[in-house]
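Hey, resending since the last one bounced:
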Amino acid sequence: MRDRTPSKVLLMASLAAWAALCPCAERDLASSLLAAKNEQERLGLLRGHAPPELASALDAVERTAVAGFEAKDFAAALNAYETLLVLAPEAGASAKLPFYFRRIGICHSLLAQNDAALAAYRAGLAAAEKSGDDQMLAENLHGAANILQRIGRYREALPLCQRECALTEKSGRPEPQLRALTTYGQVLTGLGRLRESLASHERAFELSRRSSQPEDYSLCLGNLAIAYGGLGDWETTLRLLRSLPSTNANSLNAMAISQVRLHRDADARISYRAAIAASADPAQWRVRAGTLVNLAILEHRQNQLAEARTHLEQGLAVARAHQDRRVATIALAELSQIAAGEKQPAEAMQRAEEALQLGRDSENPSGIVNALVAQARAFEVASLDGDAGRTFTEAVSVAEGMRADTPASAAGLQGELDEWMPTYQYAVAHRIRTGNALAALQLADRAKARVLLDMLDGGEPGFDALADPRERSEEQHVRDEVSQARRVAIATPGPASKVALEAALRNEEDFNVRLYGRHPELVLQRAAPPEIRPGDLAALAPNSRTALLSYFMLQDSIVLFVVRGDRTGIPAVQVFSLAGGARLDALIRSFRAQIAARDLDYRVSARALFDALLAPAAGALRGADRWILSPDGALWDVPFQALMDARGKHVLETRSLELAPSLSVLRQLRERPAAPGTPRVALLVVANPSVPEAEREAGAIAALYGRSRATLLTGDRATAGLFRANAGGADVIHVTSHAETETNHPLESFLLFAPDAITARDLLGMRLRARLVVLSACETARGKIGQGDGVMGLGWAVLAAGARASVLSQWKVDSSATGSLMIDFHRRLAGGKAADKAEGLRQAALDTMRSPGRLHPFYWAAFILVGDAR
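The structure tokens again:
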């Protein structure tokens, strides 16, 4: 039976129509040219024909080419367009050559013939330059850049994209501009230049609002969402993708990636499978290959190795068929990891080497990091520990090199850290396995709190000197919207006001990301800080009574580094492996719930957590009554001070505790020069009049420092404006207020004043000189817990703004007990009755514990000291 597919039917109809309209001679010439086997044969057929005959034949072959192209019979279209390349110069139509080359490139591309497509586009470039056709020059630049981007040759694609963007901007038409910017953004992503990529996609999205093509808006919004994801803002990515008018294979795949990053694996599986079903059309090969590999990575993580291998091989086959280096690199690295896990060193090595070669050829830093980690694990399986260590070090170096292209916003930096944390985890685990405890601690510490270190080094820069009036107006507008929505949410709490506040916060986040995209000058100069050195450790733990306890989350467990000093000044580092996972997380949640409920059975959980997190290191901690603790991940939610040892003693009864996001941060806090100028007052104390007993607490604390040395803001003077005006000149700051934690928007967590609020973002923009900031409010120690990055929120912002230490609460506190504890704490601090801030807080907590009716940790264990306790 004859082939009657739609493409063939369209082509036959077109040829029939042409045959009916054209004289015999013209049909014969055109048919002969189309049937010729090569260029020489076609040139021979053209001899002796007059210009009118050649022009008519040109029209006839063009109609055949267009019919084949529209019918998606690309082989027939290719033959016709290649015929036109010979016919056009003879017919005096050389100006059409750039267009023909462009169409030839498209046909080859759709037939997965990338090398031939690239050659055609480059020939089109030369022809367009010769004829001075800027439009076709841009079109062929676009085609060539797309092919190079697709096969991972980003460095070659970059100048073509830049040239295309300049040409399309001159045209003033939004459609070609947004198309050029989209490809440019994808190339920048491949090169790891994420900040510039986001700016390019943001500009394309703005242009899509003026495009005459309705689908451009959805396409550009989807690309913008994916760019947010590249910077680690997966909540924004998911939100934007869900706002698309309709979904397609690409958006479903991106949605699944976001869901994986947000630990919604069940949802991700559904989205991945929907994306695979939506990419059945051969033209959708690229998203199909990527989705198959992404699904396999999820399956590998869930230990479904057979399914993972199958999907990886399928995705790899599609990627290889279309010369997609990026997806092939990812697939090969993952196959190498599976082989390493199955103790198959030969396969693991071969796959990793191929992945690394592809990654290096395309100069894709993300692919290079994944391939290096896979190769290092292959070296481990082959017992080549020296090679493994060097390769892990290189992987960390490449990953850290990508940080310079992340926006300087705290959220952007934290998302970027999440992306590369597995690289650090593998490298730390390797150093532990090879017996190098100090090197493992140094690398683990380097991975922790990197964002806060950046802020301590340079601060989050403002843009007043860079912004134009429109941007300043837009900033004020979005800030006012958030303030208004927050006031409504506080005054009339409920679902509607919460939704309105969430929308205003999202709008503010979107503005901030656009701002960083438009102003690359705002990017922090982020050099990797020096590793914590033995001398630094000795300074932090100067005697046998002090112990440093630094936790680090690996993928399947937790490591605890214990550092002890002695008279020699040479610190000893010991490593302990602890069980992590869902069981520990559940125990932490249960313990916190018991504390909040004042459950008298809390002792069982308190002892279990001590056994899980501290007992394995009991020998190494013997004799140390001062602990400097650096938690990680979910351990920031553990009230270590309330845990109980085998003797039934709470930790705080026998040890003073000082917490730090990392040992490097603590070193930085101690060594960082004070902000210019000397504090004008010893104490700034602010009391929100709506908090019970707040004014009594504030007055008593002010009296301890001396009224002439204190600034007291109470009643209608307890405003955000007066706080801003006075905070920079205070040595100690004490705030008694209500607080709200925004987990999804941690820098929008706020302290409620009268009648307005101070957010963590506001604090971040201030220059504090305080050696201590006390936030006497509910849950001020809480916020967004980033992997390896501490808790981003109010306390985090205080340290980043310049304070050397903060006192924060871990749960909703009792006003009366808190007031007594705080007055006692400041009495010891102001009167010099405590060795340092940590010991002062400990003694105040113990006094509260001994008070009638306040034995339960709910009353005395809520507050922690974070930062420099001296």
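Residues 406-460+524-672 form one domain.

Sorry for the duplicate.
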